[in-house]
Amino acid sequence: MHILQVITGATLVSVLFVSAIPSSTSEFLPSTAEQNSAVLHSQGRSPPRLWTRLRDSIIESIWRVPSRQHNPSRIPSSLSIPRAPSSIRARYGDDVVLRFTIRSQNDVQALIEASNILFLDIWASTNEWVDIRLAKDVVSSLLGLLPSSLRTAHVPIIHDLAQAVYESYPQPVSSVPNPHHAFSPSVQQSSETQNIFFQDYQPLSVIIPWMRLLASMFSTHVRLVNLGTSFEGREIVGFCIGVRPANADLPTERRKTIVITGGSHAREWIGVSTVNYVAYSLITGYGKSRAITKLVEEFDWVLIPTMNPDGYVYTWETDRLWRKNRQENNLQFCPGVDLDRTWGYEWDGSDSRSNPCSEDFAGDGPFGGRESNVIARWALNETNHHNVTGAALRSMQSAGGSALDWFYHDLHVRYAYQLKLRDKGGYGFLLPKKNIVPTGKEVYNAVLVFGQFLLGRGAQDVDWEGDFQFPAQSRPNVPEKEYRGPDEEYDISNQLEDDDNENDTLLAFRTQKV
C-alpha cells in the first residue's frame, strides 16, 4: 500500500514522505495578504484585479480540460494497447504477482522466511493476504519452501508484469484503450479526473517546471524551497505555502508548520501525485475558500512531492519498480538504500537489511541515506529541534530507522499517524492513473480535518463542510462518540499554549506504498 506522511510543528510538516513541521521564523513566506484577506473577510466581494483574472485564466487554460462534455475515457474499441517493447520484456521477463491468503501467524512467518531465502519482492501485506512479485519459474521453488496450507492458497493478481509496467507509463490518448489487459478484471475501477496535470502521472522533468509556474503565478502566498541535493545532485524541492493575515499583531511570532512529503520509495508514484494534488488545492483555494484561506494564514505549509528524486527519475527512465535511492554501496551491482530504513532512531541494519541487494537495505549506519540525511538536517535547522508535527500514510507497521519514528521520538512530535493510500485491490505499485484524483481528494479531505482540529475554536467561523471534495453522503462513517467537532469543549489551542515551554510538536503525515 502507499503512504502519505505529514509532520506539523513550529517549523515543519511532511506528507508522502509527507510530513509537517512548524517553523519558528517563516522567513520564506510573504508577510501580508491585504488583497485576498480583504476580499474574503468583507461582506461583499470586489471584482478581481486584472492581474488576478489574467493569472487565473492562464492557470485554467493550461491545467483545465476546456470542455466538460469531453470524455477522455471513451476510446474507440478498435484501438488496443501495444505489446510491451523488448526492453521492458527483457527487464521483467515473465514475472507475476501472486496473492497468498493468510490464515495464521505461521503462514506469515513461512512467507517471510521463504521470501528472504529467494530474495523476493513483497509488495504488500495485511492480516488477510500477502502480495509477492516473482518470476514464473521461481513459483515452484517458493511453494516448495512453504507449508501445505499455502501451496494452494494463492492467486495471480498481475499475470503479466512486463505488460502491466508498460501500461503504467503515460501513453498518447489515441493509443490508450479502456481495459487494463495485464490485470485481473475484478480489480478494475472507474476513472475520474478534471485537471489535465492530474490526468496522468508526471515525470520529474514536468513536475519541477509545474512547481515553478505555480510559485510564479501565486507569488503572494507561494514560493519554492530547496532542501538540499540528492546523491546524483538533483535538488529536493518543496512548495512553501503561507501568508500572515493583514491584521497579524506579531509578524515575528512563531507559527506552526505542516510538512507533507511523498516519494520516499521511488516506485510509489501515487504518493508524489497526491502531494502535488494537495499543494495545488491549497494554492488555488487561497482567497477563494474561507477554510483554505484560514489554514494558509494560520499555518506554514511545506509540501515535498518526492524526497527521492534520483530513484523517481530512475523509475521513469530505467526500472519502473525501483524502490530505493541511487547511491553507491559496497556492491556496485546493488546500489541504493531504503530511505525509510536509514533514519537514526533505533536504526536496524541486521538480517536482510544488511544485504545491499535487499529492497529493505538500511545502509551502513544511521542516516546513511543521502536524502534522509538532507531532510533530517533541514528539519532540525527549521525547527531548532522543536515545534514539529508528523503523520504517515503507509501500508506496514513502523520499523526501526523509519522517518516517522525519528520525527516522533527524536524531534518529539506529539501526534504521529500512518494513513494508507490506495491501492486496496490488485494493482500494487502500478495503480492506474484514474485513481490519482480520487486519492488526492481523500488526502485533501484528511488535511482539512487535520487543519480544523489544529485550529480548535478558531475554526468555528468557517463552513468546513462546503470545502470537502466529496458529497456529504459519501463522508466516512465515523461513530458520533469518536468524532469531535470544532465547537465541542476540547480546544487544541489551549493545549498548545500550555506547552510553550516544551517542544510544540503536533503531527506528521506521510505518503508511501510498501
In words, what does this structure look like?
This protein is α+β, with helices and mostly antiparallel strands and 514 residues long. It has two domains: 3-58 and 196-512, Zn peptidases (Aminopeptidase), CATH 3.40.630.10; 86-183, Alpha-Beta Plaits. Helix content is 31%, strand content 14%. The chain contains 15 helices and 14 strands. Strands 1, 8, 9, 10, 11, 12, 13 and 14 form an eight-stranded mixed β-sheet that branches. Strand 8 and strand 9 (235-241) form a beta hairpin. The longest helix is centred in the last third of the chain and has 20 residues, at 436-455. The protein is globular. It starts with a strand and ends with a strand. Residues 10-48, 64-78, 174-181, 183-193, 385-398 and 476-508 have low confidence and may be disordered.
Task: Provide the descriptors you would attach to this structure in a database record.
single chain; 514 residues; alpha+beta; Aminopeptidase; Alpha-Beta Plaits; 2 domains; four-stranded antiparallel beta sheet; 14 strands; 31% helix; 14% strand
Secondary-structure blueprint:
Blueprint: E1 3-9, E2 13-16, E3 18-20, H1 34-41, H2 50-63, H3 86-92, E4 95-101, H4 105-118, E5 121-125, E6 129-135, H5 139-145, H6 148-151, E7 154-158, H7 161-168, H8 204-217, E8 222-229, E9 235-241, E10 257-261, H9 269-285, H10 290-298, E11 300-304, H11 309-317, H12 370-383, E12 391-392, H13 403-410, E13 415-416, H14 436-455, H15 492-498, E14 507-512
Parallel strand pairs: 10-11, 13-14
Antiparallel strand pairs: 1-10, 1-12, 1-14, 2-3, 4-6, 4-7, 5-6, 8-9, 9-11
